[in-house]
């Protein structure tokens, strides 16, 4: 039934609303989910390379150790943490809590701040201890 | 041929996706398992930094790591298939909807197949 065209007016959409943090985090949740989706290609490349033998593994390891590889891993780790925190936010909402205007805005801001903070902490940990 | 079922029978248990709340439930279920398993998986990956090929094979030769990795592959692939299905259904209404929907399932299965193959191969050390 999604193909049915109608001249009936549509409800107001994105362009008429004032920008809110909840809107940004909504689309960021989707974008990070999409990034994680295609990034699984890199994860299985790493796994298959290790299963294939030393030469294939060295090629993959060289890529992930390069500047571009590290940037991708940094971005990928942030996407994972952001999507995870966004998911936790959805679980809070599923219980019927945190849906008020003020709280949902605070949760949205906390999602971004938390994901950025955790990513930096994780990479500091890697640089300092690994 | 006219549909003899009553309107109530046609909609009972069904949402607009014709699958009831199954999609929602599976997405939440795999979200929980992803959260637990990926936390383990990320720490495994971090522990492998600088360990090279031998360290990687030794770690994935461990049965606990192997089972956890296999579970995370399955859980993540189910979760991402559902998520991408939602994205396609939200944005694609033209003739590309069905090819993309099928491609999404194939992609998720391909990732799962490759990942599981690699993990099983490393687990059995061949």
UniProtKB/TrEMBL annotation, chain A:
One of its GO terms (cellular component) is membrane. NCBIfam families: succ_dehyd_cytB. One of its GO terms (molecular function) is electron transfer activity. It comes from Fulvimarina manganoxydans. Pfam families: Sdh_cyt. PROSITE patterns: SDH_CYT_1, SDH_CYT_2. Membrane-anchoring subunit of succinate dehydrogenase (SDH). It is found in: Membrane. Keywords: Heme, Iron, Membrane, Metal-binding, Transmembrane, Transmembrane helix. InterPro entries: SQR/QFR_C/D, Succ_DH_cyt_bsu_CS, Succ_DH_cytb556, SuccDH_FuR_B_TM-su. This is Succinate dehydrogenase cytochrome b556 subunit. Its main location: membrane. It is a multi-pass membrane protein. The chain crosses the membrane at residues 27-48, 60-81, 107-129. Belongs to the cytochrome b560 family. Its cofactor is heme. Heme binds at residue 83.
Automatic annotation (TrEMBL), chain B:
It is found in: Membrane. It is a multi-pass membrane protein. One of its GO terms (molecular function) is heme binding. Its main location: membrane. The keyword NAD does not apply. Part of an enzyme complex containing four subunits: a flavoprotein, an iron-sulfur protein, plus two membrane-anchoring proteins, SdhC and SdhD. This is Succinate dehydrogenase hydrophobic membrane anchor subunit.
């Amino acid at each position: 039934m999604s193909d049915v065209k109608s001249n009936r007016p549509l409800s107001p959409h994105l362009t008429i609303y004032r920008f809110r943090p909840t809107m940004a985090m909504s689309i960021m949740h989707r974008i990070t989910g999409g990034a994680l989706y295609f990034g699984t290609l890199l994860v299985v490349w790493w796994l298959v390379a290790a299963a294939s033998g030393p030469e294939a593994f060295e090629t993959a390891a060289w890529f992930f150790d390069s500047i571009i590889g590290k940037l991708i891993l940094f971005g990928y780790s942030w996407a994972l943490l952001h999507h995870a925190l966004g998911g936790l936010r959805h679980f809070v909402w599923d219980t019927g809590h945190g849906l008020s205007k003020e709280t949902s805005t605070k949760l949205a801001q906390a999602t971004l701040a938390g994901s950025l903070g955790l990513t930096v902490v994780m990479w500091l940990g890697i640089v300092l201890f690994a | 041929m006219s549909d003899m079922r009553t309107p109530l029978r046609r909609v009972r248990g069904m949402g607009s996706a014709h699958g009831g709340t199954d999609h929602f439930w599976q997405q939440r279920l795999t979200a929980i398992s992803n959260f637990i398993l990926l936390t383990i998986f990320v720490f495994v990956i971090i522990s492998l930094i600088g360990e090279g090929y031998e360290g990687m094979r030794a770690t994935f030769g461990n049965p606990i790591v192997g089972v956890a990795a296999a579970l995370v592959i399955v859980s993540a692939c189910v979760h991402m298939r559902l998520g991408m299905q939602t994205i396609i259904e939200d944005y694609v209404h033209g003739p590309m909807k069905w090819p993309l929907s099928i491609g999404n399932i194939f992609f998720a299965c391909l990732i799962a197949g490759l990942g599981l193959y690699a993990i099983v191969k490393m687990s059995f050390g061949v």
